[in-house]
Amino acid sequence: MKCYTLGTADGKLHVLKVDESGFSIKPSLVDSLELSKRPTTCICCLPEQEVVWVASGPAIYIINAGTNETDGFFLISSKLEHVSLMKLTNDNKHVWIATRGSHVLQLRSTISFSSPAVLVYDVSKDCKLASTYPMMPDEGDLGAPRPCRVTSMLLLNEDMVWVGTANGKIKIYQLQKQEVLSPVDHESYDPLSCDTPPSHEIEITFNLQNTINAATKPIRCLIESRKEEDSVVLSCSGSYGDPDTILRWTMDAQKMQDENEEQNDEDSVPSRSLSLPVLVEAGSKVIDEGEGSNSLGSSSRSCEADAKSETGVEDATIVSSVKTAMRTYRNKPRIKRFMNMLSTSNTTNQ
Predict the structure, then answer these.
(1) For 39, phi and psi rounded to 5 degrees?
(2) Would you state the torsion angle of the CA atoms of residues 246, 248, 254, 255, taken in this order, to the nearest 10 degrees?
(3) By C-alpha distance, which of 86, 138, 136 is closest to 113?
(4) In the chain, what is the straight-line distance between the N-terminal and C-terminal CA atoms, in Å?
(5) Residue (of 179, 171, 56) closest to 121 by Cα position
(6) Phi then psi for 164, rounded to 5 degrees?
(7) Which among 118, 141, 222, 277 could bridge 154 via Cys, Cβ 3.0 to 4.6 Å?
(8) Is the pTM of this model over 0.90?
(9) Is the distance from CB of 105 to CB of 87 less than 8 angstroms?
(10) What 3-state class would DSSP assign to 270?
């Protein structure tokens, strides 16, 4: 029996259970929780702690996986902006959070969610901010465009973080953790006493390693994939049909050439790049279906004869392209009219 959580746009969280032991897999609704009136945007499951982090609007709710009740919640944005991104680290001890339209990343501990943020970082200025800094810009910057707002994130290994922004850039950071002692008064501290000894804290630094100008549109998604035995990163931007919508990058931020670009131009079919004009003339006769093959053959020979008579030397490329186009598009009405015009023109010249 597997359990699934599903968030909806009306701010509800639905708990489903699926029995996969039989031949038919049918989910059953176990419980539904109404968190808020804002859309549920992100969900992170922590099986070790038996809790689920659910982002609904500007708040994150801590749901007990056993009782399906809310253990607590906290606000992420003082401007009440929706949480747009939530990514767990590989060790499930921290979670990255960003809000819609913000260029600030926040790293929080999953063990003590009520404590302040471990790290607050501005990707537009590449600087560390105070833990009390709000996720959104100041009041005076609310109406200004935010080209460096965070749109996607990918966590690689334990220390590499790829961040996609709205201006088409990919920023690669290295996350470093260092254990330090909390500041204490060493003159008054006695190791033999019962006083609390100095605690060890984790200091986290975020260092920019590389910046890639990947596209002109927002980086919507960053995905880790593999090519043979090497790991690659796929970046997705723009809309379907746009050039360079999906690009591949190596781990050292080098763009990988598309396999289609590596093919020689000789492998391409000439008929697919040939653009034939549409000729329409009053009184022209449209070729019937029954005589299509004979007319195409005579038109092909006429075209070949014209190429020889005008230049004196046969242009094999043009003739081959025209022949291929005739064979491929012989049943198209416009090509039939074009072939008919060629045969009529040759008859007149003779």
Answers:
(1) -65, 145
(2) -50
(3) 86
(4) 84
(5) 171
(6) -100, 140
(7) 222
(8) no
(9) no
(10) helix
